[in-house]
Amino acid sequence: MHLKSLLKDIRFWILLFFLIRLVGITNPPLETGHNWRQTTVTMVARNYLEIDNNIFYPRVDFAGEKTGITGMEFPVLNYMIYATAEVFGYQHWYGRLINLLISSIGIWFFYLLVRKYFSDKTAFYASILLLVSIWFQFSRKIMPDTFSMSLILAGIYYGTNYLEGKVREKGLWNVLAYFLLITIGVLSKLPSGFILVVFAFFIFDGKIPMKRKVIFSVASLVTLFPVVAWYYHWVPKLVEDYGFWHFFMGKSFLQGIVEIGQNLNLTLSRFYDTALKFSGFALFLFGLYTSIKRRDWKVYGILAIATLSFAVIIFKAGYTFSHHTYYIVPFAPVMALVAGYGLSQIKSMKWVVALLVIVGVEGIANQQNDFRIKEKNLQILNLEEDLNKVSDAEEMILINSGNYPTPMYFAHRKGWINSNSEIQREGFLDSLQTLGLDYVVILKRSFGSEISLEGRKVVLENGDYCIYEL
Fold first, then answer.
1. Is there a single domain that holds both residue 23 and residue 64?
2. How far apart are alpha carbons 140 and 193 in whole angstroms?
3. pTM, entire model
4. Are residues 130 and 250 in the same domain?
């Protein structure tokens, strides 16, 4: 294959970006961005391996004297990490590689999907833009966001194949693949399901036989049962039965709208900065303008209906949407599609290449920090070994990491995470001691700041943390 042909093949770029993101793939989940979110995934996977592998009972390590069993997203990614560990032994980074593999496949299905309804150019450019978007960063994190969206994009591809009657002898396979992929994808991350609203275009398409629509609708309805059962029955039941709340299920629309209004600038920045960065957003605006000018209703129609659907996610999340970058991940493919359409309308290939380079450089440059771990954060890797010198693995600890569970994961212990002010409150440690607290870890440089516990016995101390025995 000639170099020119190779550069025009999206599979080459998917592979290239896969290889680029393999750099540091074995890093522990300690990068500055979202280490806390990643370690909640890894600790659940490790607990499947070490305690109980029943997928319906995920458990975390920071529930104090409780079992740690709690409601959360359906732990598909967690369980895949566990299954890999059963074969190869446990390692922190399995989730990175699993997510990267699935997310790379997701780009391929995104390309196939866009190519079906737009030009080859639009599909190619949109896929490149998605590769360098926020997707670049989160596709190698141990988090279910791009993982879930990738499964849903693949599910939409097979669902549209069925509705259009593509390869009739594979009709059953298409609807089955749609059902399985959508079910697992939405279970993995509920907000990712917002994009399924695009099927409205097919349901109201008079050219598609009614029988096919009915079968598709029944399959879609069946998909809802496990999703509703998990999130609206099982998650609350786990919280009630085991007494530990962890998973955010949103808030009322009214409260969410108020919070979005109070954080409007930050909320808007998720679109013009976080998703595709500034240059990518400029292309997105150009694509929207071009689609309206050319009256290409497919582009602005998809954007309009997807935006209305995504608004539900935004207002249910409220403040949380504004302050967590990963909430914009599901919307990135929509923005990449519109931006890719805009690029496809530019006739000068030199301009197209220049703009792709600009967006790519800005996008990747702003995400490069995820490939490195700060030296002070790396010291937490020694915590388990140091704790083993003075305590047994079954003894419970408290760490002054506030809301961050990351140090507890690397301590490989169960216990509590609290702020310095809580720890210093009179009688607080004594109350936890009655519940089984044995040791307190005071972090000095990373995830916490130094305080002294007067009258408590120091059993180990270094420049990074001090361990007290109660």
1. yes
2. 21
3. 0.95
4. yes
User: How close are the terminal C-alpha atoms of the chain, in Å?
Assistant: 68
- Residue 424's domain comprises 375-469
Total number of domains in the chain: 2
Amino acid letter, residue 10 = I
pLDDT by 10s per residue, the chain, length 470:
577 788 889 999 999 999 999 999 999 999 988 999 999 999 999 999 999 999 999 999 999 999 999 999 999 999 999 999 999 999 999 999 999 999 999 999 999 999 999 999 999 999 999 999 999 999 999 999 999 999 999 999 999 999 998 666 678 899 999 999 999 999 999 999 999 999 999 999 999 999 999 999 999 999 999 999 999 999 999 999 999 998 888 889 999 999 999 999 999 999 999 999 999 999 999 999 999 999 999 999 999 999 999 999 999 999 999 999 999 999 999 999 999 999 999 999 999 999 999 999 999 998 888 888 999 999 999 999 999 999 999 999 999 999 999 999 999 999 999 999 999 999 999 999 999 999 999 999 999 999 999 989 999 999 999 999 99
Structure tokens at 108: 């391929």
- Three-state secondary structure call for residue 245: coil
In this structure, the answer to whether residues 341 and 382 fall within a common structural domain is no
The residue whose two tokens read 């309804």 is 117
Reading the block at residue 65, the tokens are 């004297």
Same domain, 448 and 344: no
Distance CA 40, CA 38 (A): 5
Residue that is last in its domain, among 313, 343, 370: 370
Which of 370, 404, 437 is the C-terminal boundary of a domain? 370
